[in-house]
Specification:
heterodimer, A: mainly beta, six-stranded mixed β-sheet, four-stranded antiparallel β-sheet, 0% helix, globular, B: 117 residues, mainly beta
Chain lengths: 116, 117
């Protein structure tokens, strides 16, 4: 069975600074996707960034980038130039590829507060 | 397309009553998922449809829970004889994919918050 661990329940960062959220996972699969989702207070879950396990290059989306270390089963999210609107719960999620299984396996989340 | 739509947004019910939630996915998406999220936790997978076929169902989904997706369009999640432990946010998500591909990422609705009193 796959598991996802987010070891930082809460984090805070000053506006315009950089913050890194950690995520580790456990799987015996070789083909999978990893995701970071953002859930602002009382709002819906939104995809931040996605990484295919077969790609060695780390995914980037504007101010968001990941450090994907497949051998270490680590998938951290770096947020550069933090903005007040980045305040949210951030969830790391795993999805196996293949077969009929398309479910996401989630971590417990990290609550990020951006301070002015 | 306005995204994934869930109704109602909030539901308060008395213990023992039945409730039904509806999810309208993004129109071209063939995959639909239900998750449950309790306060301070990550979502937990409940069930997954590809078109009208229910391909996977979590052991979390007791006999009191049933989900349908007639004609592969909208989906309903029914909880019979609700218990206080059923209080949670019920999230619906949809995506598109074919064959063994991972497909697109899952797009989420705003959820239905259920409170059982």
């Amino acid at each position: 069975a796959q598991t996802v661990t987010q070891s930082q329940p809460e984090m805070s960062v000053q506006e315009a600074e950089t913050v890194t959220l950690s995520c580790t996972y456990d799987t015996s699969e070789s083909n999978y996707y990893l995701f970071w989702y953002k859930q602002p207070p009382s709002r819906q879950m939104i995809l931040v960034i996605r990484q295919e396990a077969y790609k060695q290059q780390n995914a980037t989306e504007n101010r968001f980038s990941v450090n994907f270390q497949k051998a270490a089963k680590s998938f951290s999210l770096k947020i550069s130039d933090s903005q007040l609107g980045d305040t949210a719960m951030y969830f790391c999620a795993f999805m196996k590829i293949g077969g009929n299984n398309r479910k996401l396996i989630w971590g417990l989340g990290t609550s990020l507060g951006v301070n002015p | 397309d306005t995204g994934v739509s869930q109704n109602p947004r909030h539901k308060i019910t008395k213990r023992g009553q039945n409730v039904t939630f509806r999810c309208d996915p993004i129109s071209e998406h063939n995959r639909l998922y239900w998750y449950r999220q309790t306060l301070g936790q990550g979502p937990e997978f409940l069930t997954y449809f590809q078109n009208e076929a229910q391909l996977e169902k979590s052991r979390l989904l007791s006999d009191r829970f049933s989900a349908e997706r007639p004609k592969g369009s909208f989906s309903t999640l029914e909880i019979q004889r609700t218990e206080q432990g059923d209080s949670a946010m019920y999230l619906c998500a949809s995506s598109w994919g074919s064959g063994g591909s991972g497909g697109t990422e899952a797009f989420f609705g705003q959820g239905t918050r259920l409170t059982v009193v």
